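Q: Could you predict the 3D structure of U-box domain-containing protein?
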Amino acid sequence: MDSRSSSDGLNSTPDSSSSPTSSPSSAVQRALQRIQSDDQDSKLQGAQEIRRLTKTSHRCRRQLSASVGPLVSMLRVRDSTESHESALLALLNLAVKDETNKIKIVEAGALEPIISFLESQSSNLQEYAAASLLTLSASAVNKPIIGSSGAIPLLVETLRHGSPQAKVDSVMALSNLSTHPSNLTIILEAKPIPSIVTLLKPCKKSSKTAEKCCALIESLVGFDEGRTALTSEEGGVLAVIEVLENGSLQSREHAVGALLTMCQSDRCRYREAILKDGVIPGLLELTVQGTPKSQTKAHTLLHLLRDSPYPRPELQADTLENIVCNIISQIDGDDQAGKAKKMLAEMVQVSMEQSLRHLQQRALVCTPTDLPISACTSEVSLK
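A: Sure. Here are the predicted structure tokens for U-box domain-containing protein:
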């Protein structure tokens, strides 16, 4: 099968050399004639040609959009795995990075047969069905339609028992679908978190799979059932923390967001569960090296994880260093506390180096022609 991309399910390079409005080539015309034929062998050849022509060409996807109806009809042919696979792969390539075709495929009635293929005994057909739903669910128009079609419980079931590739595509499809509010409760009712955690634990934490798992977890822990499921799953919180430490920038943002949502919902209930798995070193690093959103969330979570979430009445400054020292003093185990102290020292060092660079840059722009020397010196000293 063609290789996946992060958003649609397949890698593709749009053919920018020709306009989508160019006249169809002879190869495109031949493929259309074959797919519209009444002869099943011709249809099969047409589907295979469409798959090939649309693999990398946006122009061909536009020119072959008329083939959607005949291809969907091939999905309904009984006892013909070859027809089903060829039609699915052709539809998949037609939909890649083409919003119009995505919507047209769903409107043509493709969802019912595609969903049924998730239960197929053929691992290939199951994988192609999951990849198709991943691609089609990238469309905002399709999200509520797919959510109400009965696909979500079967995607969760595929996430539990499917092939490795089908599991990855299923979790990505669920992540796409979760961005539509009405789908979240349907996903939650299917109890996907144990399977998400099972997929997340062994995967590379900087991978797109880890990113989509954490994005989905972040959405689901907005509900009490989701928070309970994550903390009840052995290693569930730890898996999220590992992404916070070693994930991509976007993955780490989702991970810290999930933990923050939990702690904000019920600090007393989730504070210890988060602390005991060694979250502090990763949070410290995130306050310096994360995205702006990650940094803000990490700071907020550190405030919530300390002994008291409220500002201190005494004179001691409520600095990040003091907050972390307060947390470290309560951590059980020398290893975790030692690692956190080391991370704090490194964080302070990085912060000091960044501040020094900032001062040097400000000093460079303060030239005698801009300001008097005394004014320049005063400005720098105040920073």
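Q: Anything worth pointing out?
A: The chain has 23 helices and no strands.
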